[in-house]
Automatic annotation (TrEMBL):
Major enzyme class: lyase
Keyword terms, alphabetized: ATP-binding, cAMP biosynthesis, Cytoplasm, Lyase, Nucleotide-binding
Listed Pfam families: Adenyl_cycl_N, Adenylate_cycl
Family, per entry: Belongs to the adenylyl cyclase class-1 family.
GO molecular function: adenylate cyclase activity
Highest classification ranks of the organism: Bacteria, Pseudomonadati, Pseudomonadota, Gammaproteobacteria, Alteromonadales
Places the protein is found: Cytoplasm
Protein name: Adenylate cyclase
Swiss-Prot/TrEMBL catalytic activity: ATP = 3',5'-cyclic AMP + diphosphate
Adenylate cyclase class-I N-terminal domain boundaries: 13-207
Keyword Nucleotide-binding found: yes
Record has Lyase as a keyword: yes
E.C. number(s) listed in UniProt: 4.6.1.1
NCBIfam families tied to this protein: PRK09450.1-5 (NF006980)
Length: 823
């Protein structure tokens, strides 16, 4: 009886699989149809005339694979060598894969023309790590080959026991750009079950009760694990992972996070989409209603209607429509064969959408920055609402015992800058579907009542010369203002970073003339190479304190004292004149200093400083972030002065390098001093291990008595850092809470440096480091009082260890092999 039942269920699964294969091919363009068909061929044999060849030792072969007419035709169309039968003959012990499966949005309502194809390669357990490394290398080569046809295919290696014996494989599945590490487990398998397509190999036993004890296992089926009872502990990690994925594809992540929220709202009687799909299969319903992505939307819709949350529901509908890529206002010959067309047309009619809204959504490849920013803000707000709802749900549960706390910290750190409400962070603009954000003309307005600058994408001639504060607020709310900041340098930097401003963009500012427009265009050209060439962010960067990788001082963007100067620039170089205290009147030729900086976490910021001490304040602001910078740090000066550009550049560059050198030299027990004359005053710049402070020097004190003076730390007697390991001082960074841990016999020393660099030293008896980190992480996530800063500003954990006799600070939980990986 059990065998008959299994055979019947296998038949239903295979019938659904054949329908999905037909659906995916009906939507793909002709070339991509052939590429999709040859995916299993590339993994079933290793022929020298096929892509991805490494050497004959690379494992290949798929259980039960044979050539089909579709594969034969695809090889002919793609000019690929068709392997002979001998190339496909393997004894059972030589076959590398149990099966090859596409999963995700492929063959569903979510299959956009730009969607990638995620392929799981479930490999045989006998393969060695060396053999798996060869397969991984081959997968990389195959991904590159498919990309040549503008077809994105990603491969993932999966052990058949990976979900059943999860802890055995955690260390092999490192968190990365495409892999969720330990942040989700059963939820990932549930997504695979509800969406997969078998391209070759064994049929997956994904139906309910397939994994029950007492049922005879069919060797022709692949059993990956039971998902019918999803653990509550997994929802939090999965939501963090989806938020991280949302940095690139927020519309897709929003749907998945809301599904998690929907599942959580039903817990513990959660009805999985996998179960719904199978129920329709048993009813012989293989229509478009039996679709994983459509069911995902319908479950979210029912949940939000139950919450009377029509605001979120409207954005969800737009995400679902845009994800499908079906354009109702632009029907083509190809759309006539799209199996989803009738259903989506019916849904849109049901939603009451206007023709104008549909046209706007279909025009998404040409959305300008204002439209993109509005939609991005809606997505971000909704993602955070869902995250907080899931956080509330998870606070009543335990964190997953599978999830490594170091991965929790990495994900939170990556999300920190993106979701921060800090006005000084330059937020990246997700282009979503838009092909370009470039603008020919950009206009700036300054409002005295708010002391802020506002950016428009229209030419000045199309914008009212003056507006009331209420009218300005309306322009902001209506999206006519696409960005605002407290200084104009931030507007220009944001525009350059997000591709709005290029070297050919024409700038203007309301109420200002041609000279101002030229200055903004000049600043744009200077910032382009700085903001567009950025280093990779690795796991090491995210698990260590931030430091600056690029610092740009932008001077005289606003009031420009050099415009009043009538002399010749040669005088400055010849006479070695001081641009900070020039002439009889001792004029400071700098009126303002803006700092545009990139830290090692990948966050851009912009700050402005005004007045005679603006330069000192700017240096004091950046200097601690330069202490841990390496010799690759990019220190730049952009002078927007009408005159004296070169002398200002030369002297500021020299001063900045001097300060950088002094900061590198200071130790825990000394203070280095450098003096500088600004206007009529002399200032001492005092550098110690916690940064730089400045103060005026009495004019009666001789210059040579204070220049380059080395002082003992005056506050050393009361210095809380005096009794801690000096190496900790090399790691302190403003704005982040840090724990430095040292294990001694039955004692755990804990040095805590808070966001303002205040130190606390504690001792814990009979507590090990791992338990302490897990307890503190859990407390920080779920204790609202500890979330004083950003929701995602998690503390960082380090342990102190002696290596070859030298005390070393090591990020907690990550190996050296992991830390070099991009993230």
């Amino acid at each position: 009886m059990a065998t008959l039942s299994t055979g019947y269920q296998q038949g239903l699964a295979q019938h659904l699989n054949s329908i999905r294969l037909a659906r995916v091919l009906s939507v793909l363009p002709r070339t991509q149809q052939h590429l999709f068909n040859v995916i299993p061929l590339m993994l079933s044999c290793h022929h020298q005339d096929l892509p991805g060849v490494i050497n004959s030792k690379t494992p290949c072969g798929i259980d039960g694979f044979s050539l089909s007419d579709n594969i034969t035709k695809a090889c002919a169309e793609l000019s690929l060598t068709l392997p002979q039968d001998d190339d496909l003959q393997y004894i059972d012990t030589d076959v590398a894969f149990e099966g090859v499966y596409a999963m995700g949005s492929t063959a569903s309502f979510g299959q956009h023309s730009k969607s990638d194809v995620d392929v799981w390669l479930v490999y045989k357990p006998h393969l060695t790590q060396t053999e798996l490394n060869l397969i991984s290398h081959k997968n990389t080569l195959l991904t590159q080959w498919f990309a040549e046809f503008d077809f994105e295919v990603n491969f993932y290696l999966v052990h058949p026991q990976q979900f059943i014996q999860s802890n055995t494989f955690d260390s092999n599945q490192s968190l990365g750009l495409e892999h969720s590490g330990t942040s989700q487990h059963w939820l990932l398998l549930e997504e695979f079950y509800r969406s997969h397509i078998c391209l070759a190999g064994k049929t997956v036993a994904w139906w309910p009760n397939a994994h029950c004890d007492g049922i005879t296992r069919d060797p022709q089926l692949l059993y990956l694990g039971d998902v019918e009872s999803l653990p509550a502990a997994e929802y939090f990690g999965a939501s963090l992972w989806q938020l991280y994925k949302g940095l690139n594809k927020p519309h897709k992540a929003l749907l998945k996070v809301l599904l998690l929220e929907t599942y959580a709202s039903e817990y513990p009687q959660t009805r999985l989409i996998t179960q719904q799909i199978w129920q329709l299969c048993e009813q012989s319903n293989f229509s478009s209603d039996n679709d994983a992505y459509l069911m995902l939307y319908q479950r979210i819709e029912a949940y939000l209607l139950g919450q009377s949350d029509t605001g979120r529901l409207e954005i969800v509908r737009r995400c679902f429509y845009l994800k499908s890529g079906v354009m109702l206002s632009q029907k083509s010959v190809k759309s006539g064969t799209d199996w989803r067309l009738a259903k989506i047309s019916h849904l849109v009619q049901e939603w009451g959408w206007s023709t104008d809204l549909i046209t706007t959504l279909d025009n998404s490849p040409h959305w300008h920055a204002g439209q993109l920013k509005w939609f991005n803000q809606q997505l971000s707000e909704l993602l955070l609402v869902s995250y907080k709802n899931l956080l509330q749900f998870a606070s009543k549960q335990a964190l997953s015992d599978r999830m490594r706390v170091e991965e929790l910290g990495l994900l939170a750190r990556k999300l920190h800058g993106y979701f921060s409400d800090d006005d000084h962070i330059l937020q990246p603009l997700n282009r979503l579907w838009s092909l370009t954000t470039t603008e020919n003309e950009l206009t700036v307005r300054y409002c005295e009542s708010t002391a802020r600058f506002y950016l428009y994408r229209q030419p000045q001639s199309e914008i009212a010369t003056s507006v009331t504060p209420n009218e300005l607020l309306k322009e902001v709310n209506d999206g006519h203002v696409i960005h605002q900041a407290d200084n104009v340098c931030s507007l220009v930097a944001w525009s350059v970073m997000n591709g709005l401003a290029t070297a050919d963009t024409t700038w203007s500012q309301i109420g200002r003339g041609h000279r101002r427009a030229s200055k903004l265009a000049y600043l744009t050209r200077k910032l382009i190479p700085v903001l567009h060439n950025v280093p990779m962010v690795s796991k090491r960067h995210l698990c260590e304190p931030w430091y600056y990788q690029k610092v740009v001082l932008v001077v005289n963007v606003d009031h420009d004292p050099t415009g009043q100067w009538q002399g010749q620039e040669l005088m400055f170089d010849y006479l070695d004149l001081n641009i900070l205290s020039f002439g009889r009147d001792k004029t400071n030729m700098l009126s303002s200093v803006a700092v545009v900086c990139l830290n090692s976490w990948g966050e851009w910021q912009s700050h402005r400083f005004n007045g005679d001490t603006a330069l000192l304040e700017a240096i004091s602001f950046v200097i601690l972030g330069l202490k841990r910078s390496d010799d690759k740090v990019d220190l730049s000066i952009i002078s927007c002065s009408e005159k004296l550009k070169q002398p200002i550049f030369n002297q500021l560059k020299s001063l900045l390098l001097r300060c950088y050198g002094l900061m590198k030299k200071v130790s825990q027990t000394n203070t280095l001093m450098h003096q500088v004359t600004i206007g009529e005053c002399r200032y001492g710049m005092y550098f110690n291990s916690l940064g730089m402070m400045y103060r005026k020097i009495d004019a009666a004190v001789k210059r040579d008595l204070v220049e380059n003076l080395v002082l003992a730390r005056p506050e050393l007697v009361d210095d809380p850092y005096a009794s801690v390991p000096s190496i900790i001082l090399q790691f302190v960074a403003l704005g982040s809470k840090q724990y430095f841990l040292r294990e001694r016999a039955n004692t755990l020393d804990v040095f805590i440096v808070d966001e303002h660099n205040r130190l606390t030293q504690l001792e814990y008896q009979n507590t090990n480091m791992k338990n302490f980190v897990e307890k503190e992480s859990h407390s920080y996530v779920f204790d609202g009082q500890k979330q004083r800063l950003s929701v995602f500003n998690m503390p960082q954990f380090f342990f102190l260890s002696r290596i070859e006799g030298e005390l070393t600070v090591i990020p907690f939980g990550l190996s050296n092999d992991e830390m070099g990986a991009a993230f």
